[in-house]
Write a structure and sequence with these properties.
The chain is mainly alpha-helical. The chain is 39% helix and 8% strand.
Length: 542
């Protein structure tokens, strides 16, 4: 019965992947429509399951996340079949780029599924508590989708009711988009802090959005509004600090903690951990819309992987040494013959051992048994064979508690209105497990305890970049940070120059993806609107 209902909901929510709804004005007899749905608790539950199906689909493979590769942490294969990713990496995507289109379409699908619940779920004959949980999930994920889209595309057509299907929606300014995001998140802030039964609570963790996840997201949103392009400054950094503090002050009540060993942060054996404030759950045994297809996307093609996301050389060079760097990148590369080499090593004849000649991220990589070809649910070990499967059950960590600590440190420092001693302690807590012991209390030779507010803010900002390096599924990626701080132009300039980076004495390397256009303008901060919609809606123009 439940499967039948769910399939009907998914059919109802199947759309042409555009920003405007394509629900027909006519109501064919015998078809499922919002007006005759939401008659039972079971139907309300199924609508939320359908929403989560769309949420999962927004991250299940790489296309939707290509735009986040514009930060200074990630690059890609300049050849092979990665041209869509390379276009974005060089700040030159077309409106037909599959990353642009899939990102837009998948997030508007979330919005449409959320709208169905928000606008109709309240009539379900059930308790107010149950209606609030369902509508709260919907309002959170609608805000999440718009928050993602507004940082990538700027002004947006606001579909809030699934009514308009004639492609005439005008673009709402960025500030208006944020107004709706805040309204949704503030409404969702009354969600429970924990759940007790599946599917809301599974494997010892909350699967549904919680109060602490909403508050953490509000902190991220206020920080985004404080920076470019709205530039609301100290007032909004103070709002961000307040929201982050609301989470930190209830750390025990919310059951939040940092993993002691950084190798466990993304480990499959630690999939359901207390550091993840908000995650997306996947199951490789269901179907491709319900799994993470990122198993081998960091593994170089020459070693049998997909070879999608590579580490940028300059960012890797700057990365602080310690357990976090060793867990974020392969410290050495395991060749197919079992030999371990540095990624920059060369054979006696002068050719590279690793054709890609870049650092190799390992944030999504898992090991496998080469005989059975089954993934191993354990912390990743670069000295063991890498899985070449497509799928695993990796839980995408959208927000980790380490990020909330850093958001507080940065926001408090930039606003000047927080507890600076606490803010400095938050930074030290994150560094304690991340860097070598002699660097925990200092950043670039400056003692954290002696930092000015500006120094602390910049240190926390950079620290967040190290924390999410290469993890393009996070709510706030390295690109997101650089966008807020108006620093994407600096990344562009570095890539345009592509000066050789000294890896070790006498060894240099340059990036493989080369910029064609080397002149920056602020239009490059945003992606083009996809041709699937812009050809129909004349308002989708810059």
């Amino acid at each position: 019965m439940q499967i039948t209902i769910l399939s009907k909901i998914l059919l109802l929510l199947s759309v042409r992947s555009t920003s405007c709804s394509d629900f027909l004005d006519e109501k064919p007899q015998g078809m499922l429509i919002p007006e005759n749905y939401f008659s039972t608790q079971d139907e309300l539950n199924m609508s939320v399951y359908a929403l989560y199906n769309k949420v999962n689909a927004s991250q299940t493979f790489t296309n939707m996340q290509y735009p986040h590769w514009q930060g200074d942490d990630i690059t890609t294969n300049p050849g092979s079949n990665k041209q869509a990713a390379a276009e974005l990496d060089r700040f030159a995507p077309t409106n037909s780029n599959k990353g642009v289109k899939d990102c837009w379409n998948r997030h508007y699908e979330i919005i449409k599924a959320a709208n169905m619940i928000i606008n109709n779920g309240g009539k379900t004959p059930t308790t107010e508590e149950e209606k609030n949980v369902a509508i709260g999930q919907a309002r959170y994920w609608r805000a999440y989708a718009y928050f993602t889209l507004v940082r990538l595309f700027g002004p947006l057509p606001m579909n809030m009711d699934n009514v308009n299907d004639d492609f005439t929606l005008e673009l709402s300014p960025v500030e208006t988009v944020y107004k709706y995001i805040l309204e949704d998140l503030e409404a969702a802030e009354s969600l429970p802090s924990s759940y007790s039964a599946a599917p809301r609570f599974m494997n010892g963790v909350n699967v549904y959005v919680t109060q602490q996840a909403v508050k953490s997201t509000l902190a991220a949103v206020y920080m985004a509004m404080a920076g470019w392009p709205l530039n609301k400054g100290a007032e909004y950094y103070a709002k961000a600090a307040d929201k982050a503090l609301e989470v930190i002050s209830k750390e025990s009540e919310y059951g939040l903690e940092l993993d002691n060993d950084y190798k466990n942060v993304y480990a499959m054996s630690n999939n359901y951990n207390k550091e993840t404030v908000l995650g997306i759950n996947y199951s490789p045994i269901v179907d491709w819309s319900q799994d993470s297809q990122l198993t081998s996307c960091n593994v170089f093609e020459s070693l049998g992987g997909w070879g999608d996301g590579w580490g940028e050389i300059r960012f890797w060079k700057r990365f602080p040494e310690g357990p976090r760097k060793d867990a974020t990148y392969d410290p050495k590369i395991l060749l197919t013959d079992g030999t371990l080499v540095n990624w920059w090593d060369k054979k006696p004849d002068g050719t590279p051992y690793v054709n890609e000649y870049h650092p190799m991220f390992s944030v999504f990589t898992v090991n496998w048994d080469p005989v059975t070809k089954k993934n191993i649910d354990a912390p990743y070990d670069y000295k063991l064979p890498k899985s070449q499967n497509m799928c695993n059950g990796h839980r995408h960590r959208l927000i980790r508690y380490s990020e909330v600590l850093l958001w507080y440190a940065e926001a408090a420092a930039r606003s000047g209105k927080g507890d600076m001693a606490m803010a400095k302690q938050c930074l030290k807590r994150v560094r304690a497990r991340a860097v070598n012991s002699d660097q925990v209390n200092t950043v670039d030779g400056v003692a954290i305890d002696n930092m000015s507010n500006e120094q602390l803010a910049n240190a926390a900002y950079q620290e967040h970049g190290w924390e999410v390096a290469g993890y393009w599924v996070a709510l706030v990626t390295r690109r997101s940070d650089q966008f807020r701080m108006n620093e994407l132009k600096n990344t562009f300039a570095e890539r345009a120059e592509n000066a050789p980076v000294e890896i070790v004495s006498g060894v240099t390397a340059t990036e493989g993806v080369l910029l064609v256009n080397k002149t920056w303008n602020d239009d490059l901060m945003y992606l083009p609107y996809p041709d699937t919609d812009s050809q129909k809606n004349p308002n989708l123009r810059r």
